[in-house]
Design goal:
The complex is a heterotetramer of chains A (66), B (252), C (227) and D (208). Chain C is built from ten helices and no strands. Chain C has one domain. With 227 residues, chain C is mostly helical. Chain D has one domain: 3-Layer(aba) Sandwich (Rossmann fold). Chain D has helices at residues 43-50, 71-77, 93-103, 111-117, 133-141, 143-146, 163-178; strands at 3-14, 17-28, 31-37, 58-63, 78-81, 151-155, 182-186, 197-203. In chain D, strand 6 (151-155), helix 7 and strand 7 (182-186) form a beta-alpha-beta unit. Classes of the chains: A mainly alpha (66), B mainly alpha (252), C mainly alpha (227), D alpha/beta (208). Chain B: It is a multi-pass membrane protein.
């Protein structure tokens, strides 16, 4: 362990701001990437469901007509 | 070789295969990167010149390393897509490019933040940073082209051509930027050119590099699965993935 | 297909492009005028002192050249795409890369070459010291083919999109960076009195390489675009 | 009679929608294939996929005597004309015809003769942009008079033509068929000319 206290760890020998800024933004960027990937998937799920419902409606209308 | 690969070239198979690998890759990324970062931040000694600010290296170096190799893999995927007409290789572009772009951004940002205590300025036209900036532009170009087409498949092919053109250009760009940098006597972050790093710093760095590799793999796999679904949305097998919707469909 | 017929087709496409553009001269003139206007904006923006203007002259002229290349890029394939020529070209038995090369060559002839001729005027406006003039023209002469070739790739990729402008600059400008660096570096070298020919030679080499490879990328892009 | 074209189990999708699937037919030398279907049924897509402008989803296309894959070969044996006429508005009729022929690799083409054949004599030095749609179409159609390709694939060849133009075109078709060629075409009009071997193919929304 290089740091004596929690405080020292946060301060990073005076470079705390830079170190934590770099780490923070990096993790934020990765987080955005992950969240965006998951949302793309759920958007697809929604698109798929809508498509299915549209087809069901079309099929029902066809039945009603015939 | 080719015959062996063929059964895997079915989107459905690849989708499920990636689904099986994804948890392992994710677990590996979290575990290894976690160990590497804790090691690097808490246990590695401070640098005798840069103090604790050098700890940015544990994300800067891995992301910079992979930002370049991910672009190369992008071009390789595009090449495979063109030569063997493998449509899934084209789709891989959409999975790989955003990950590469984010890695490049991280390398760029951490480099700039590191530069502030070292050079006293947030942005220095240093050869490495400049190359990263251009690489980011190249990624953005590929992504922009991919999504500019309303037809996904055309977009994938067009972006693939651009990626291949880009990868031929990368060495030229690198060389030109380095030459330009020496011409103008710019600052250079010399941390990498020093005598070999002490093992106490090197090992956590290597762990972080491995962790980033897993992270990249996991992110790309997850995106590849989504991309396969997007391209194959109207194929029957997708129904089993998403499940049949409840028979509502009633219009309110 | 025989070599003779490939040659016939190559000359035909070049002749056709030349004739079409010669009947719409504004297509050649407008990008050149654009460069002149951009170049004359700089003294107004940074002040007319010769030291600062002379130092940035080569860079400004080259950046203006890059931008004007983007401006004139529509002409390369847009019309051909809309009227179906591109479709017919892909169905020719002659090699599409060869025909693409023809189009690149004509584009250079009508946009790159005039730029070389225009360069002294720009140099004059920007007070580039006389020592740099020759090198500036040399870099333009060997560098503009790269401009035409890479622009052709981008134009072929985005031709079916219709609203390619901003996208095209996003795709292409990063690829022009080596060109920009070496060209303005060469002029700078000439100004400080060191040898500029290594950079000019390097540019010439890059130019050859680009002209060799770009037609294949253009051909592939055309095939994707007509799909 | 020899087979010129053999198509097996062709399938195509456009924007995720199946246009046709499991489409098979073959074409003999001397035959005309008339493809019918409503707007958006996929007629153009079918023709375009035959010449490789649209990627196939499934199926094989065999051009006699060569496989579709041998690009050099079949390109010499087929002539495709789409909706767009590939006529340059800035060039005169004469220049258009001459350059069109040269683009196909031919130098020995009498452009005047061709213009006379399609009835455009007297308009030869006007820019094509000033001609009517039908006249521009005629410029494009001159290709049919010097083409050596045995297989013609024509998408709506009669569009914009007047009755005289249609008659002229059908005469040319008859000559081509007589010489052992074959034609695939789409048209909303019925043919006024009855070739001996006329096949019809109807595409509608995925089924045949």
């Amino acid at each position: 362990m290089q740091f004596d206290s929690w405080q020292a760890f946060i301060e990073m020998g005076g470079y705390g701001f830079y170190v934590w800024l770099a780490f923070g933004v990096s993790f934020l960027a990765m987080g955005v990437l992950v969240v965006q990937g998951l949302r793309a998937r759920s958007r697809l799920q929604r698109e798929f469901t809508q498509e299915q419902q549209r087809q069901q409606r079309l099929a029902r209308r066809k039945q009603e007509v015939s | 070789m080719w015959r062996w690969l063929h059964p895997y070239a079915k989107p459905e198979t690849v989708y499920h295969l990636l689904g099986r690998w994804l948890p392992w890759a994710t677990a590996g990324a979290v575990l290894i990167l976690g160990i590497g970062l804790v090691w690097g931040l808490l246990f590695a000694p401070a640098d005798y010149q840069q103090g604790d600010s050098y700890r940015i290296i544990f994300i800067h170096v891995p992301s910079a390393m992979f930002s370049m190799s991910i672009y190369v893999s992008l071009a390789i995927a595009a090449f495979i897509g063109r030569v063997w007409q493998l449509k899934m290789a084209d789709w891989a572009l959409a999975a790989i490019a955003p990950v590469g772009a984010v890695f490049t951004f991280i390398a760029l940002f951490t480099g700039a933040v590191w530069g502030k205590p070292m050079w006293g300025t947030w942005w220095e036209w240093d050869a490495r940073l400049t190359s990263q900036l251009i690489l980011l532009f190249l990624y953005i170009g590929v992504l922009a082209l991919y999504y500019a087409f309303s037809d996904n498949r055309t977009g994938a092919k067009a972006a693939g051509i651009l990626a291949m053109v880009g990868v031929i250009n990368i060495p030229i760009i690198r060389y030109s930027v380095e030459w330009w940098n020496t011409l103008h006597q710019g600052a250079t972050l010399t941390v990498f050119e020093r005598p070999p790093m002490a093992n106490s710093m090197l090992f956590p760095l290597l762990t972080c590099i491995l962790g980033f590799a897993f992270l990249a793999a996991a992110l790309i796999m997850q995106r590849m699965r989504t991309e396969i679904l997007r391209q194959e949305l109207r194929r029957p097998w997708v129904k089993q993935v998403f499940g049949r919707p409840a028979a509502t469909g009633e219009r309110s | 297909m025989s070599r003779a017929s490939s040659w016939t087709a190559l000359t035909a496409i070049m002749k056709r492009d030349l004739m079409v553009v010669m009947r719409r001269r504004s297509d050649i003139l407008n990008p050149l005028l654009f460069i002149l206007v951009v170049v004359s904006l700089f003294p107004l923006a940074v002040g007319p002192g010769p030291d600062i203007l002379g130092r940035i002259a080569a860079g400004v002229i080259w950046v203006a050249a890059l931008l004007s290349a983007l401006l004139g890029s529509e002409r390369l394939f847009r019309e051909d795409y809309l009227d179906g020529t591109l479709e017919q070209l892909t169905l020719q038995p002659q090699a599409l890369p060869l025909l693409s090369f023809g189009k690149i060559a004509v584009h250079w002839l009508l946009s790159g070459l005039p730029l070389v001729i225009l360069a002294p005027l720009c140099a004059l406006l920007l007070k580039l010291p006389l020592a740099g003039w020759g090198t500036l023209m040399a870099t333009l002469l060997v560098g503009t083919p790269i401009l035409s070739a890479i622009t052709a790739i981008g134009a072929a990729l985005t031709v079916s999109l219709g609203r390619g402008g901003a996208l095209l600059s996003l795709l292409l400008l990063p690829l022009f960076i080596p060109l920009l660096i070496f060209a303005s570096g060469a002029v700078e070298a000439a100004l400080v009195g060191t040898a500029a020919w290594p950079q000019v030679l390097l540019l010439a080499g890059l130019s050859l390489l680009t002209l060799l490879l770009a037609p294949f990328a253009v051909a592939a892009s055309i095939r994707v675009s007509v799909n | 009679m020899s087979t010129l074209l053999d198509v097996k189990q062709l399938a195509s999708q456009r924007a995720g929608r199946t246009l046709f699937a499991d489409l098979s037919f073959s074409l003999q030398a001397g035959a005309v294939l008339h493809i019918e279907g409503e707007n958006g049924a996929g007629k153009s897509t079918l023709l375009r996929s035959l010449v490789g402008l649209v990627e196939l989803q499934a199926g094989t296309i065999q051009f006699f005597p060569s496989e579709h894959g041998l690009a050099q070969e079949w390109r010499q044996h087929t002539l495709f004309m789409g909706h767009k006429s590939a006529v340059k508005a800035e060039l005169t009729a004469l220049e258009n015809v001459a350059l069109q022929a040269q683009l196909s690799g031919l130098t020995q083409v009498d452009a005047w003769q061709l213009l006379e054949t399609v009835g455009l004599l007297g308009l030869e030095d006007l820019p094509a942009g000033q001609l009517s749609a039908g006249q521009q179409r005629r410029i494009a159609l001159t290709r049919l008079w010097y083409s050596q390709a045995p297989l013609w694939i024509l998408d709506e060849p009669f569009t914009a033509l007047d009755t005289r133009g249609i008659d002229l075109l059908q005469q040319r078709f008859a000559q081509h068929i007589e010489a052992g060629g074959a034609i695939i075409l789409t048209s909303h009009q019925a043919l006024t000319w009855q070739p001996e071997q006329l096949q019809r193919l109807r595409i509608q929304g995925g089924e045949l």
